[in-house]
Amino acid sequence: MSSSHKTGGTKALLRSHEFILFVVVVVEWIFFYFIGTSKNFSGHTVGFGTLDAQFDILRHSCEIGLLALVMTPIILTGGIDLSVGSVLGFAAIVFGKLWRDGHVPIPEAMLGALAVGACAGGLNAFLITWLRLPPLIVTLGTYSLFRGLAEAVTHGADTFTGFPDSFNFLGQERWLGMPAQLPVFVIVAIAVWLLVHRTTFGRSFRAIGYAPEGARYAGLPVERRIALVYVLAGVVAALAGIIYTARLGEAKADSGTGYELFAITAVVLGGTSIFGGSGSVHGTLLGVAAVAILKNGISLAHGPTEVADMLTGVLLILALTASIVPKILSKRPARVQTVPSTPQPSPTS
Amino acid sequence: MKKYFRELSVAGALGVLLIALAIFAPAFYQGQPLLSLLTATAPKLVVACGMALIIIGRQIDISVGSQFAVSGACGALLLGHGQPVAVALPAAMLAGALMGAFNGALIAGLGLPSIVVTLATMVSFREALRWKRQGELINIGAAQWFGLGQGHGQWTIIIVALAVLLAVGCAMRYLAAGRFIYAVGTDAEAARLAGINPRLVTFLNFVLIGALTGLAAMMAAVQSPLVDPNAGVGLELLVIAAVVVGGVSISGGRGNLFGVFVGLLLLSCISPALTYLGVEAYWEKAIQGTIILLAVVADGWRSRKNKN
User: Fold this and answer.
1) Which residues in chain B have their CB less than 8 angstroms from residue A306's CB?
2) Interface pTM (ipTM) of the complex?
3) Could you state, in order of their start, the residue ranges of all structural domains in chain A?
4) A313 contacts: CB under 8 Å, gap ≥ 6
5) Domain B30-300 carries which CATH code?
6) Confidence category of residue B2, pLDDT binned at 50, 70, 90
7) What are the residue ranges spanned by the domains of chain B?
8) Do B286 and A314 touch (CB under 8 A)?
C-alpha cells in the first residue's frame, strides 16, 4: 500500500488509503476551524483556530501518537498490545516513586522508568514468543497486572507532584517556539518510520504478519523479531509515561487509562490491516491526526467530551468496515469460480 | 479423570483457599456477609456463562461491562417510571440482545475481528450512556429485591444465577446447538463443511451474551435502591479471567461451565480473602492479572508439552 504511488503513478496515489485519509483530516480540520473558532468580548480570536490551540492539540496527542507509532509494527506482525496504556501508567508511577521516595535524580529516574517499560514489554514478548500464547490474552493479563501494580504502589490514592520546573518544561513549555515534547515525538516517528520502511526489519514484520510459517521457512528469526516489537512498545510507552507526567506535573496511577483504544484506532484508521501484513507509519501519523483533531476539536468547540470518545469508537468501526469492504468485493467473484475445487477459508475463523 | 484435570486443579485451588480462610480467618464464614458475597457474585456468573460460550466459539467480547451499564440503566429507568419487573426485565434483556446483535453483525457478518469491534463498542456504548445520563443515579423505588424483601430477594438472585448456569451447562453438553459452538470454536471451516453455519452460530452467540448481560444487569440493579449508571466498569476483565482460569481454552473449542463456575468463585473469594487475611485491597487488580497470566501460561505449557 505504501509503495503504490511508485508503481502506479499519480492515479494510484490519489486512490491510496493514505491520500483519502489525508483529505479526511484536512476536511475535519477546516470543519473545526469554522465551528470551533470564535471572537471573545475583547475581539481576540479564541478556540480551535489559534496557534495556541494548535500547539495544545500537538501537546495532547503526543502520548497517544507515541503509542500508535509503536503499535504499528506490532499490528503489522499480526499481534496486538492492549497493555500499552497500563505500562504508561506504571512507568509514570515508578518514575515518581524513584524521584520522590527514592531521592533519585531526574535523569536516572527517567532511565529507571524506561527500564521498567523495557521489562514490561519483555514480559509480554517472553510469554508471546516462548509459550506461543495469543498476544491478545497475554496483553489483556498484563493490562490488568501493570495497572494493578501502579495502584498497589500508590495505594490507589497517592500522587507524585512537585517536580522541578526543568522537568515540567518537557511537557508544558515551548522550545524554539514549539511544544517541548514535539522534538521527542518527531525523533521517535522518524526512527520508527525508518525501522518499518527502510530496513529489513520492517520487511520481516510484514512477512511475519502475512504468513508466520512462511516467514519461518524463509529463515527469518520470527520469535526474535516479534520480541523486538513488544520490547520497543514497552520502552516507548514508558517514554510516553514520562512525557505525560511532565505535561500534567503529576504522576498518578490512572495515567493513560484507555489510551490503548486511541492508539489502536489511529493505527487501523491509518490503513494498517488488523490481521497484519500491510500498513504504513505515515498512515498511522495521519490516523493520529484524525483522532486528535476530533478529540480536541469537539472540546474546543465546547461539545461534550463523552461524544468525542463515543465518536472515536464509531470511527474505528467505520475504518474497519471500510478496510474490509474491498476485500469482500474482490473475493466474491473468485469464490463462485473456485467453490467446487478449493473452498475459501471462512472469515469467521 | 485426566480429561477434567484442568477443572479439578482449579477446584483444588479453590478448596485450598477456602480451607486457609477457615483456619486463618474464620470470620469469612459468617452467614450474612457470605450470602452478600454470593449475591454480588451471581450476576457475574450469568455474564460468565455467556462469555464461556463466546470464548469456546473462538471469539471474545470486551464490551460486556458497557452492555451491562446500558441495559441496567434501561431496565432501571422503566422500574423508576413505575413499570413492573415483568416489563423491565425483558426490556433490559432486549436492550442487551440488541447491543449483542450489533457486535455480532459486524463480527459474523463482515468478518471483523471481535477484539477490535468490541473494544470500539465498549467505549461507544459507555460514553453514549454517560452523555445521555451524565452519571445521574436512577431511583428504582420499591422494586428493590424484585419487591420481595432482602432475604428472599438474595436467594432469588442466587437461584436464578444457578439455574442459568445449569441450563447453559446442560445445553452445551446435551443439545446439538451446544455442540455446534464447540465445533465452530475448534475449526470453523470443518464445521462449515459439516453443514453448520459458523457465521450464524457466532452471531447468535453474541445475541445470547447480550441478553444474559441484560439479565445480569437487572439482577445487580435490584440489589440497591439507587442504580449507578457507571456500573460494570472492569466487568469484562473479571469475567474473561474467570472463564480462562476455569479451563476454557482462549483459542476456542475447549472448556465447560463447571470450570467457569469454580474459576469465578476462586476469583470472587480473593478480594474478601485479602481483607480478612490483612492484605491491602489495592493489590486486587495486580493479583487478578497474575492469575490470568498463570492460567494462560499453564495452558500454553501443557499444549507445548503435548506437541513435543
Assistant:
1) 127-128, 130-131
2) 0.84
3) 50-323
4) A261, A265, B119, B120, B121, B122, B123, B124, B127
5) 1.10.3470
6) low
7) 30-300
8) no
